[in-house]
Amino acid sequence: MSENGTHGARDTTAREATARDTMARETMALDLRSGATVDPPTSPRLPVHATAAIDRAAVLPPPPAPEPETPVLRTVETHLDEILAAVPQPEPIELAVLDAQGLLCAEEVVSARALPAFDQAALDGYAARAEDVAAATPDAPVELAVVGESVAGAAGPTALAPGLAQKVGAGAMLPTGADVVVPAVWTDRGEVRVQVHGAPEAGGYVRRTGDDVSPGTVAVRLGTPIGPAQISLLAAVGRDRVQVRPRPRVAVLSAGSELVDITAQPTPGQVVDVNTYALAAAARDAGAAAYRWGILPTERRRLGEVLESQLLRSDLVLIAGTFATEGDMVQEVLAELGPMRFRQVTMHPGPVQGFGRLGRDRVPVICVPGEPVAALVSFEVFVRPAIRSMLGKRQLFRRTVQAISAERLLSPLGYRQYLHGQVMRHPDGGYVVEPLGDGDEAMLARMARANCLIVVDEDVTEVAEGGLVTVMPLLLGG
Questions:
Q1: pLDDT of residue 322
Q2: What reaction is this protein's catalytic activity (predicted)?
Q3: Residue 281: what pLDDT?
Q4: Which fold has domain 93-113+216-244?
């Protein structure tokens, strides 16, 4: 090979090496701008079209950094739906029938007995044959011979021949052959012979075996609320224990360094903790087994221990407090236990609401505002339906009515406002409601006088005096 050829080959090799180095530097620059991990340059030559693409990308400006997310307002329905979808359904438990009062039956209770267990008299009177008394009238009574008496209690079977009657008490076993009971008031109440002044139809005032419940049929159905009547029926079919939906265990806590217990004398700047008392009472009214823990500690390690212990012993944890946007220790400790989010909800009072499922068992934790009026309103809107869902109730929400407003109402646009009020029957029918305060005043005494919440929707800013509003009566146990 000639010298010129040798130099030409070297020049070509040098140009190729220079091109590779240039591409490597440009690729590294792209990687640095994009935040990718940079690997050492490699020697294989890239195709011409790839080199051109890299050259074009090298001169393009870097993509703009993503803007920080702005808080998104959530509707009341969205926040409530998230809570209701997350609350668990506790497994059924077996309780003594009296302890099951107020709970929902969690099984189909099938009777092994007939109710009544034998043919019996429905009232005091005379057992007889219907054909023997069919012609009896007040003007032409029928007279029958009385043979014995049957009262409620243990007794052997007896038989009744035609033309005879037997004196019976309510609940007494009916003699064989008798198919009617003549009420005592329709007779002269004779002891040896009795005059019958009226004729009941065949089967009248008689309870036949199994008329109420027959063996193998359902006495109390799944999902039935257990009250006095159901307890009576359970006892009658021989059940002293029954499977029920248990009361959810709800722990109630307050957060705030300014809080003191009600037994302490608050100093300037301190506030008595009323929320744990009010919310625990509200939870019990909703059907929960609620207990108040009290004020959360302000020392971080102790705070974590308390929260973890409540998650272990509760089906739902309820915390009231004024939660800061940044640097709030309670929020930080809650976040260490699981995904916990605080959001702005389009409601007034109490737009700041929190919810998460924390701990090993992902226990629902609901955080409500620390201002007492807002705390109880938030309970009505979010917590009470959650408790009733855990109880297995079909009706999660309080019933509402339409009422005439006695005063002009103002409400912020875009927010659903809840005002305490007094609702009463209107003399002309329907309801009339009078607001207590204007919604900006957190007055406990006014709230204590209220018997309802006035609900003003998000798109309504004013309700004229005499206008219709939605009212949610606050009836105990309703």
A1: 85
A2: adenylyl-molybdopterin + molybdate = Mo-molybdopterin + AMP + H(+)
A3: 96
A4: Molybdopterin biosynthesis moea protein, domain 2 (3.90.105)
